[in-house]
Inverse folding.
């Protein structure tokens, strides 16, 4: 007997994979608000804002069903642990429910793995205590295969909710082929214990579906409108 076909994805299935970042340093407050309005209108998973925009974004997104995410030690992960913990708790106090950070690349490349793990354990504990989600970007473009493997083990033990392939600020080229290969590796190592987020160069509905197939639960993209309008067009009867 043939295996049953996978149910067709709904609009909500795709929309709830998407995080819309509003993080570029030159964006005005009005542009941040526009990003929040896009997130609300398209009913996506989360909008990610700069820390200084957190208060406004929490107010703007109230009762929307869309999470407000913000960033800690972004985009390089090189702040001290005490600073990262302060930033994390400050964001949680302001109503942020998802925290995106970057693994300390210098410490990771220096193979100071205990430092990295202890730091992430403390950040994850703060997020668990505050009922928030912690996402840890690896910035895979800088990491060798063995370091990617070790990073997966670290975030799993630390109690992070998501492992993220990269930020948009990593080294080029980091193409969809690179992202998909990394997602496949991360999924094999993490299983279902830690979810995977991909970002950097995700621009089309085909990109999103390919990454979902590879094991992604979330994608970060500024192409939210184009992707979801394309998906609406595809699912029309």
């Amino acid at each position: 007997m043939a295996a049953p076909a996978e149910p067709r994805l709904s609009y909500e299935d795709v929309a709830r994979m998407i995080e819309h970042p509003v993080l570029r340093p030159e964006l005005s407050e009005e542009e941040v608000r526009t990003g929040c309005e896009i997130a609300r209108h398209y009913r996506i998973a989360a909008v990610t804002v700069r820390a200084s925009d957190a208060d406004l974004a929490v107010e703007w997104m109230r009762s929307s069903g869309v999470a407000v995410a913000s960033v800690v030690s972004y985009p390089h992960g090189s702040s001290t642990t005490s600073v990262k913990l302060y930033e994390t708790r400050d964001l949680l106090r302001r109503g942020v429910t998802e925290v995106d950070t970057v693994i300390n690349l210098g410490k990771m490349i220096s193979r100071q793995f205990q430092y990295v793990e202890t730091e992430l354990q403390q950040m994850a504990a703060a997020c668990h205590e505050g009922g928030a989600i912690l996402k840890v970007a690896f910035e895979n473009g800088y990491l060798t295969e063995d370091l990617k493997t070790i990073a997966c083990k670290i975030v799993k033990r630390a109690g992070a909710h998501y492992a993220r392939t990269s930020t948009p600020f990593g080294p080029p080229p980091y193409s969809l082929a690179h992202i998909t290969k990394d997602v496949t590796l991360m999924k094999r190592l993490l299983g279902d214990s830690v979810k995977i987020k991909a970002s950097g160069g995700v621009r089309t509905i085909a990109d999103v579906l390919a990454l979902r197939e590879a094991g992604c639960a979330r994608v970060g993209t500024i192409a939210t409108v184009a992707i979801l309008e394309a998906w609406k067009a595809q699912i029309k009867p």
Summary: Residues 178 and 187 are 14 Å apart (CA to CA).
